[in-house]
């Protein structure tokens, strides 16, 4: 298959967008989406102290590469290892993580966590990028380790398997779940404020 933008060999296919992309255009697409998501969640202000959540996974490697792109030339942003002193938390959650988490909470009947507003500004740059593309991005930038997902409970593994099967015929499903996940806390707050 050929890249929809330049005609070179494609390395990823985005069924949800109806395009195929070569490695150069896939990386650029991921970075553009991630930057947009960061801006949507309040951006990275001057003087910001970032706490990075994550470990040694492919997702974390992708996140640190992405942050070096997003913060290139910025000297007004620092990193901290103490979450209490951070002004913003950055996570390596992928689109799949967000969608699976939402479905897990729904199937567990746990409304409280779905409606919780984070205490600190939270940026999830990779939450608009499917896990397979995050993995591509990590490998594109030198990751040679495992790309498999972290261990999760049998319950959430079943949810992940269901979502994978469902998404094969409905490729936008994870994005729809992400939109719900983004909107719920604000909708709940709005509803509460009207009730007062
Ligand atoms: Zn291309």
UniProtKB/TrEMBL annotation:
It comes from the Archaea. InterPro entries: Rossmann-like_a/b/a_fold (IPR014729), TtuA-like_LIM_N (IPR054306). Signal peptide: none annotated. Residues 2-25 form the 2-thiouridine synthetase TtuA-like N-terminal LIM domain. This is 2-thiouridine synthetase TtuA-like N-terminal LIM domain-containing protein.
């Amino acid at each position: 298959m050929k890249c929809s933008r330049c005609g070179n060999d494609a390395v990823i296919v985005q069924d949800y967008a109806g395009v195929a992309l070569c490695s150069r255009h896939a990386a650029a697409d991921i970075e553009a989406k991630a930057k947009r998501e960061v801006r949507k969640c309040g951006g990275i202000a001057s003087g910001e102290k970032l706490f990075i959540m994550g470990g040694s996974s492919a997702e974390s490697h992708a996140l640190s590469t992405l942050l070096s792109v997003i913060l290139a030339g910025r000297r007004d942003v620092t990193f901290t290892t103490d979450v209490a002193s951070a002004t913003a938390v950055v996570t390596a959650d992928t689109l799949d993580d967000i969608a699976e988490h939402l479905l897990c909470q729904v199937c567990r009947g746990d409304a409280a966590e779905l409606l919780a507003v984070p205490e600190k500004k939270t940026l999830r740059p990779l939450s608009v990028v499917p896990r397979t593309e995050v993995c591509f991005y990590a490998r594109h930038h030198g990751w040679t380790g495992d790309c498999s997902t972290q261990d999760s409970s049998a319950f959430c593994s079943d949810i992940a398997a269901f979502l994978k099967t469902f998404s094969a015929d409905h490729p936008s499903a994870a994005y729809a779940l992400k939109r719900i996940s983004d909107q719920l806390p604000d909708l709940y707050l709005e509803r509460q404020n009207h009730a007062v």
